[in-house]
Amino acid sequence: MSGFLAQVLNGVQYGLLLFLISSGLTLIFGVMGVINLAHGSLFMIGAYIAYVLTAAAAPLWLAVAAAVAGGAMFGVVLERVLFRHFRTREHLDQVLLTFALVLLFEEARSLLVDNDFHAVAVPAILDFSVPISADFSYSAYRIFVLVVCLLLAGLLFLLIERTRFGAMIRAAAVNQEMVQLMGLDVAKIQVAVFALGTGLAVLAGGLAAPLYSVYPGMGDGFLIVSFVIVVIGGIGSVSGAFWSALLIGLVDTLGKVLVPGIAGMAIYLLMALVLLWRPSGLFARGG
Amino acid sequence: MMGRPTLLLLGLALLAVFPWLAPNFYVGLGSTALVWAMFALSLQLLVGVTGLVSLGHGAFFGLAAYSIFFVTPESGGLSILLTLPLAVAVAAVAALVIGALALRTRGFFFLMVTLAFAQMVFFLFHDTHVAGGDDGVFVARPVLGLGDLVIQTTKKTRNLVGYYVNLGLLAAMYLVLAWLLRSLFGRVLTGIRINEHRMRALGFDTYRYKLLAFVIAGALAGVAGHQWVMNDGFVNPELVGWHRSAEALLMILVGGLGFLYGPVLGAIALTALGEVSQLVTERQLLVQGLFILAMVLVLPQGLAGIRLRRRSAAGETA
Asked: Where does residue B78 fall: left (phi above 0), alpha (psi -120 to 50 degrees), or beta otherwise?
């Protein structure tokens, strides 16, 4: 029973990390209409910055904060220099452009760091186990990550549903021209959303580093799963991304434990089911 | 889409003559380029003709290749007359299943779904150990012939024979697609690319047309996958990966999205480029990434597109 509980918690924690990545993805896609295959690379960048800085004796929280700040600024640069001009381009161009970014980021990582697998230490203050029941205790760091992700999810929800800026984001996701006609600066909204999405992905990477270690191509797996989450959750819907991320996290983790045979395929079968039943996503916003 | 018979025949002639001019290693490389050309050409039916950008096409390529492994005994290769239809059938069925689900979505959703399904197939081979898992496995190459009537190839002549088999299949594939394009089916697909709503308003069941295109494209990818095994004799999960599909997309872009022969041009150009760049540096990802950036930013119409622009400029000023 305690083993099962541990797996459930693992699944939730995995799902919440995925939520950070996929919420950025769905926002960027909803507001800008741009597909970004390099979103997983941002996750990797966050993880590697955390690794490099902690290896240089910086505390994890500082490393992650630096990564997020750098990541958000990098996001602004990317948006200004590349993505802004690619909004209206063909799908094929966007796919290839962001694929090129994936390759370049991998090469940059190879040049700046290396191609090896590296563990990242859990910060000392969180390096213990929290007793949950008589015979079961869970890693404090994982609980920390869980709590942080939930807080962020809550903040994101407040931002999007309860603030003026959030209303602008939601409006821009539905009809950009109208937003512009109403006198709002769509370009500013887009930069902000892109920086936000980038920052979230980088943050997820930094938080994930002690859990999954850092290695080449680590972003790929998370990216594709994030796509599955966006497809299941419905485009532009952050709350949809939240629930479907949790679902995916649990299905994947529990699936690997309960039915090892289909293991990695479980979430894709789930996606297939959703496509059969509700192609526009379980929580799609207004079509 | 424009076909230019003389240009194409010239190209075919060049390709046919190439093995006599080049050393054996390059014949093998050319043979690989032709397999890639077939793969990219099959994808062109989806991307260039119907406007469906898919990142999962590698799944059909890989499944066809792996299917040969599953039927081939350790003792030796089976007849191509058995393996080729099997490979194509496997790929077509997979395309039917995946397409039926994926085509319930549009645009970027479709892209993400095809990517996800390809990843699923990747895990199928990677995580299970049915066929060597991550490491891949050797496959006895299919033989040309049936029963006792076989064209024997030595290691020396294998490249040459393989090259011409690939060239023949590529030419046949091109002719089939060119014919399809001119048919009603092809025109509906083009119409769907330009404006799907209008086609629906005209009464066409676009889902069915797209699905049929998807299955045909998958089947043709199966041909390419089969030829990969004939060339290489080795399969691994990488064949299915989305990086491969993205490279095929690149070939289409480089050759020219609006031309049926674009992918062939692109495949040859990219294979050649790959060889040259490997001489210069080990940083292949860097070269690839920069090249793609340059292509997308500077030359999105592809190689075939350059010629077209020059011609029309000349036409307008004349």
From this structure: beta
CB-based contact A228 B112, cutoff 8 Å: yes
Alpha helices in chain B (DSSP H): 5-21, 24-44, 58-71, 80-102, 107-127, 155-182, 184-194, 196-201, 206-232, 242-255, 262-280, 284-298, 302-317
> Amino acid identity of B231?
N
**Å between A268 CA and nearest CA of chain B:** 6
Residues of chain B contacting residue A36, judged by C-beta atoms under 8 Å apart: none
Mean pLDDT of B242-271: 92
Interface of B with A in 240-269 (CB under 8 A): 242, 246, 249-250, 252-253, 257
Residue A39 in this model has a pLDDT that exceeds 90 = yes
Buried b (16+ CB within 10 A) or exposed e, A9-46: bbbbbbbbbbbbbbbbbbbbbbbbbbbbbbbbbbbbbb
> Rounded distance, CA A126 to CA B83, Å?
58
User: Distance between terminal CA atoms of chain A?
Assistant: 42
Rounded mean pLDDT of B160-172?
93
Q: Report yes or no: A20 and A254 within 8 Å, Cβ to Cβ.
A: no
**Is the Cβ–Cβ distance between B62 and B239 less than 8 Å?**
yes
Provide the pairing of β-strand B145-146 with B137-138. unpaired
Q: Two tokens at B49?
A: 């003709």
Q: Which of B215, B213, B250 is nearest to B36 (CA)?
A: B250
**Which tokens in the block code for residue B290?**
């920069």
Query: Positive or negative CA dihedral for A206, A207, A210, A212?
Result: negative
**Cα atoms in the Cβ-side hemisphere of radius 13 Å centred on B207:** 6
The number of residues making up chain B comes to 318
User: Does ipTM exceed 0.90?
Assistant: no
% helix, strand, coil for chain A, step of 5 = 75, 5, 20
Q: What are phi and psi of B137, to 5 degrees?
A: -155, 150
Which string of b and e fits B244-263 if b means at least 16 CB within 10 Å?
Answer: bbbbbbbbbbbbbbebbbbb
Q: How far apart are CA B283 and CA A247, in angstroms?
A: 39
Q: How far apart are CA A200 and CA A218, in angstroms?
A: 16
Supply A150's token pair: 């939930």
CA pair distance B88, B94, nearest whole angstrom = 10
* Largest Cα span, chain B: 66
Q: What is the pLDDT of residue B1?
A: 45
Chain B environment of A91 (Cβ under 8 Å): 53, 107-108, 111
The 10 Å Cβ neighbour count of residue B68 is 28
Distance CA A265, CA B59 (A): 14
Q: Is the pLDDT of residue A92 over 80?
A: yes
What token pair was written down for A255? 């699936």
